[in-house]
Amino acid sequence: MKKVIRNELDTREFGIELAKKLKPGDIIALIGDLGTGKTTLTKSIAEGLGIREMITSPTFTIVQEYTEGRLPLYHFDVYRIRSAEEMYELGYEEYFFGRGICVVEWADQIMKLIPEGSIVIRIEYGENEDERIYYIEGNGR
Ligand SMILES: Nc1ncnc2c1ncn2[C@@H]1O[C@H](COP(=O)(O)OP(=O)(O)O)[C@@H](O)[C@H]1O
Ligand SMILES: [Mg+2]
């Protein structure tokens, strides 16, 4: 499914709506260049889950956990991951196959580890500064 996101407000609405539909164990794989809004979308998903804690870009920690919402949120940024081995070392399976929600920025880095049935959102820049095009696959079920 293709969706045109006109501006940051659309991203926010999309994230909040998506969060409402999420079920335990859902994985959202985000693929898109720097600045396409992966972290911004993650913040909106967190907001929709009822997380008030500030979501920061977890570039140096790979995964951040937020447990105050409707479901636990595990926010991954795998930009620096170079091999599946590194993901095993970090115990990614506990997160991916647990009952929380995983959002993975730069998921293309570890596509082989993304389970079938995940929600994959590829984000591309649109025609103006604020526009983004989402290509969405899967609904988590
Ligand atoms: N439609 C949009 N959705 C999300 N962010 C947008 C949008 N339009 C402009 N922006 C801006 O683009 C930047 C996205 O940054 P960020 O979410 O950190 O991207 P990424 O995590 O993909 O590198 C922010 O500065 C944000 O204000
Ligand atoms: Mg980011």
Structure, briefly:
The chain has helices at residues 8-21, 38-48, 84-89, 92-96; strands spanning 2-5, 27-32, 63-66, 73-77, 101-105, 119-125, 132-137. It has 141 residues and is of the alpha/beta class. The mean pLDDT is 95.
How would you describe this structure to a colleague?
This protein has a seven-stranded mixed β-sheet. α1 crosses α2. The protein has helices at 8-21, 38-48, 84-89, 92-96; strands spanning 2-5, 27-32, 63-66, 73-77, 101-105, 119-125, 132-137. It has one domain (2-137): Rossmann fold. Helices cover 26% and strands 26% of the residues. A hairpin with a 6-residue loop joins β3 and β4. The chain has 141 residues and is α/β, with parallel strands linked by helices. The mean pLDDT is 95. Bound molecules: adenosine-5'-diphosphate and magnesium ion (MG).
Question: What distinguishing features does this structure have?
Answer:
binds adenosine-5'-diphosphate; binds magnesium ion; single chain; alpha/beta; 141 residues; globular; Rossmann fold
Instruction: Return the string of H and E elements.
Output: EHEHEEHHEEE
Q: Number of DSSP strands?
A: 7
Question: Total helix count?
Answer: 4
- By CATH, the architecture is named 3-Layer(aba) Sandwich
Categorize the overall geometry: globular
Helicity range: 25-40%
What is the name of the CATH topology? Answer: Rossmann fold
Bin the strand percentage.
Answer: 25-35%
- Major sheet: order of its strands? 1-7-6-2-5-4-3
Name given to the CATH homologous superfamily: P-loop containing nucleotide triphosphate hydrolases
Biggest β-sheet strands, sense, barrel: 7 strands, mixed
Determine the mean pLDDT: 95
Number of domains: 1
